[in-house]
Amino acid sequence: MSDEAADAIVNRDTPIPVVSITSPGDHSRPSSSRTPTDSRHHLSASKLKDKLQSLGDSHEQSESPNRFSDKMFTMLLSSVLPQDIDDDGDTPQVKDRRSRKYVDRPNFSLPQMSSNFRRFNARIGVAFVAQNRAIRLFTWRQPPQTISFLFVYTFVCVNPTLALVLPLACCLFFIMVPAFLARHPPPPTHLPTDLYPLGGPPLAAARTVKPAPELSKDFFRNMRDLQNAMEDFSRGHDAVVSFITPLTNFSNESLSSIIYIILLCTSVMLFICAHLLPWRFIFLAIGYALTILGHPTVQDLLATPENERLFSEKEHDGRSFLINLSKDIELETAPDHREVEIFELQHRPLHDTDGEYESYIFSPTPYAPLSPSRIAGDRPKGTPFFEDVQPPRGWRWSDKKWVLDLLSREWVEERCVTGVEVEIEGERWVTDLHYEELDDIREKEFSMKSGKSGKERTRLKERNVGGAGSDSEREVLRRAWEKGRPSRKGEWRRRRWVRGVERVPVSNGGD
């Protein structure tokens, strides 16, 4: 192992080059006439950093020494990131597994983001060194190393248990041996070997893996490599998505269905006969094929226009073959049909027994006497006109008009509606029944709560169109209904209208 190999494992502590600052009059002075006293115009990295900090804010010099870097990265990130990020927003349609509802992690913060980025960038050099070595290995920059890798890969494929030895061997030869050579450096070639025995005392301090100093050459090298790695990941991600997504997202349902069937059948076959396949030979052939494809000569042969055209044609033929297979698959394209309902509510003042019912609202609920909204005293909700009734989201009308539900007794019994009179002929109104006992109870309760005079109580009681509101009223209404006591029609009546809807199909380009 050489010193160059050992230096590649750790980040180098290369300082920033010295910056020279000269006055305008110094440009006319020849370089040979400069004296050693000109060294006062040279600034070191730390002094330059202090100068930049003082230019930004001179009254905060006692703060953290990384303040300038924090400002720089915070300004950079704030220019490209949105200002408001609500990770816990209500998004019922899409389930985000990265939300804090699933994993409790710190929330986004620009200062924390800039600090973590600087710490990460100072320590990522080892990963980029490994990436560069892998690129050099598989691009045949040094053929002996690539051939040696193929021999090792062959041994592992022939005897897979040797894969357990690889992590230990890498730890020995790429970590332990360089660390030992750092403390016991080999003798120089121009001096006798006996003067530098490897078994003697260490001749150098132990080398440690240290983060790259900020504003150093290694720090900016890591930023360069990180930038290139992000570009490589983006290109690879887009390539994979553009190839796999059209085949698997059911934008073409026939094509995705035939691929689903192929994957399902393949999974079943592998589950049954996977142990019969020669996996050692398969992995050996795949490894050799991928390594040989990385050779520059092979790359030049594959990069010719004729081969690119051939690959494009083969890909097109493969897709055409799958499309032809999918033509035999018949998918159900008829839209889903449902029936929706609306209740026409009419109201009449309770004291006006001879008056006519007037149209009030079209509501999605029947506003029954014992419904929770009626008990709570809420007004019915809906729209005053038929034309304003809209189909549910994602559906459209399949019938031209609303149809009156003639089976009024069925929907009343299905909802267990009590305290009503049902018309089984005519207009099929379902009318509230009002019992005289309820007036006495309401009078007593209203007098105890408000203390109003008789006329005021009567006027306010007529305004109360909420129906039975207390537990005592509900109990009286049940007993009167069960015993068949005499009653008169109440203030509300309703009937049910129905209409057919069908689900709206979404086109390939829709959301």
Short description:
The protein has 511 residues and is of the alpha+beta class.
Keywords:
single chain, 511 residues, alpha+beta, two-stranded antiparallel ribbon, disordered N terminus
Radius of gyration: 42 Å
Shape: elongated
Helix content: 40-55%
Topology as H/E string?
A: HEEHHHHHHHHHHHEEHEEHEEHHHE
Q: Percent of residues in beta strands?
A: 5-15%
Biggest pleated sheet = 7 strands, antiparallel
Average the pLDDT over all residues and give the rounded result: 75
Number of strands: 9
Terminal Cα span: 59 Å
- Summing up helix and strand content along with how strands pair, one would put the structural category as alpha+beta
Quaternary status:
single chain
- Uncertain regions: pLDDT < 50 for 5+ in a row? 1-45, 55-65, 84-92, 456-469
Secondary structure tally, helices: 17
Main location: membrane
Region (Disordered): 1-66, 447-475
Transmembrane segments: 150-181, 257-277
Organism: Paraphaeosphaeria sporulosa
Q: What's the topology here?
A:
Blueprint: H1 3-9, E1 19-20, E2 42-43, H2 45-56, H3 67-80, H4 110-123, H5 125-138, H6 143-158, H7 165-183, H8 217-248, H9 253-273, H10 279-293, H11 296-302, H12 305-326, E3 337-347, E4 358-363, H13 372-375, E5 395-397, E6 403-404, H14 408-414, E7 420-422, E8 430-434, H15 436-450, H16 454-463, H17 471-483, E9 488-503
Antiparallel strand pairs: 1-2, 3-4, 3-9, 5-9, 6-9, 7-8, 8-9
Helix pairs in contact: 1-7, 3-4, 6-10, 9-12, 15-17
Biased composition (Basic and acidic residues): 37-62, 447-464
Subcellular location: Membrane
InterPro entries: Peroxisomal_Membrane_PEX28-32, TECPR1-like_DysF
